[in-house]
Prior knowledge:
Layout: H1 2-13, H2 28-34, E1 73-75, H3 78-86, E2 99-101, H4 102-141, H5 145-166
Antiparallel strand pairs: 1-2
Helix pairs in contact: 3-4
Amino acid sequence: MMRLFAKTTAAQLSSLRTLENVRFVSQTPRLLEKSDASKPTTPPAESQSPTPTADAPQPAAEGSQPWQQKKSLHTVNNFDKRVLVSSGKYKTIDEVPERVAQETLDRARDRFRVKMCIYMMIICVLICIVQIFRGKNAAERGESVVNTNLEWHRQYNEGVTTKKENK
C-alpha cells in the first residue's frame, strides 16, 4: 500500500521536478517545500560530479529515527526491583542494576500486572466457594436473610418505642 502511494505521489510530482534518491514518502513534503515549481529542473551532466543541492534530501542524523534513538534508562526503586525479580528478568534483588531500560521495566510491570490479576481471580473464586459452603450451612440451621432482616427490624422498633416511653 505504501509503495503504491509512493509511486502515485512520485508520478504526480514528476511534472514539477525529477525526484531522485527519494526513498520514503515522509521525505516528499520536505522536498516539495524546498523545490521551486517555476524553475525548470535539469539533471546534472554525466561529466560533472553531483553536488548536493537544497532540493536533495539530507541524510538523516544518526539517532533521528525512533528505532535508532538511545534507549532511555529509568532509576529503579525498591518496588521496581521486586517487580523485575518477580517477572523473572533477574534472579535476586541484588542483581538488579540501579538504572534499567524503560522498555524492560514496562514489560516487567505488564507481566506483574497480569500475574496480580490472575491471583486476584483465583482468590475471588476461592472466596466464592467458601461463601457457598457457609450459605448452605446457614440454610441447614434454618437461617435466612429474610429472618435476619425481620429480627433486626423487631429489635430496632423495640428500641425506638423504649426511647419514646423514657421521654
